[in-house]
Amino acid sequence: MLMQSSDYLTRLTALLAQVDRSEFDRGVALVRDAWISGRQIITLGNGGSAMTALHFMTDWTKMTFLAHGKPFLGRSLVDNMGLITAYANDLSYQDVFSAQLRNIAAKNDLVIAISGSGNSENVIRAIDVANEMGCQTLGLCGFSGGRLKERAANVIWVNSNDMQLVEDVHSVFGHIVMQALCHAEALQ
């Protein structure tokens, strides 16, 4: 039997009602503060989370600049396939993000790592490197939160074992950030 859309939407609605809004608010504040201070905001992830990382940068970079005229120093570590495959070939796939961070990140930049399971090795290595470099870290995860929940300084955890619902909630966070930045009144 085919699942009805109402079943999915009911589960998503219930999950959204359980979201820790203080985690969302903290995440929004981290992005806003990095943007206002002119620091980089760097995203990364695998698979669907890679697309979420790109989606964040597309929305945040374009829309905040259009709304305020203030540059948004956003980049994603998933958008340069040549660089990813070079690091995967010459080092390892587990180092494709951490190696990039070592080259471009600076102390106090914000690194946002996205992993549905919270256990993707290349994401964990990137968070570890970002923490070592003195970056601020925000982990978006689901399921039990995995190692990402333990290692990121700030976490948005979606308590669900359904990858698609986890990805939906992560996407909602990205849209909340975009609207919060676009509607920010006082830029310091």
Listing every helix as H and every strand as E from the N terminus to the C terminus, the arrangement reads HHEHEHHEHEHEH
Quantity of strands, as a count: 5
Sequence of strands across the biggest β-sheet: 2-1-3-4-5
Q: How many strands, what sense, and barrel or not for the largest sheet?
A: 5 strands, parallel
CATH topology, anyone?
Rossmann fold
- Give the helix/strand class: alpha/beta
> What amount of the residues lies in strands?
5-15%
CATH class: Alpha Beta
Characterize this entry briefly.
The protein is an alpha/beta fold and 188 residues long. The protein has helices at 5-18, 21-36, 48-68, 81-90, 96-104, 121-132, 146-151, 163-182; strands at 41-45, 74-76, 110-115, 136-141, 154-157.
Describe the structure.
The structure is a single chain. This protein has 188 residues and is of the alpha/beta class. The chain has one domain: Glucose-6-phosphate isomerase like protein, domain 1 (Rossmann fold), CATH 3.40.50. It has eight helices and five strands, in the order ααβαβααβαβαβα. It has helices spanning 5-18, 21-36, 48-68, 81-90, 96-104, 121-132, 146-151, 163-182, and strands at 41-45, 74-76, 110-115, 136-141, 154-157. Strands 2-1-3-4-5 form a five-stranded parallel beta sheet, sandwiched between helices. Helix 3 (48-68) packs parallel to helix 8 and helix 4 (81-90) crosses helix 5 (96-104). The radius of gyration is 16 Å and the shape is globular. The model has no long low-confidence stretch (mean pLDDT 96).
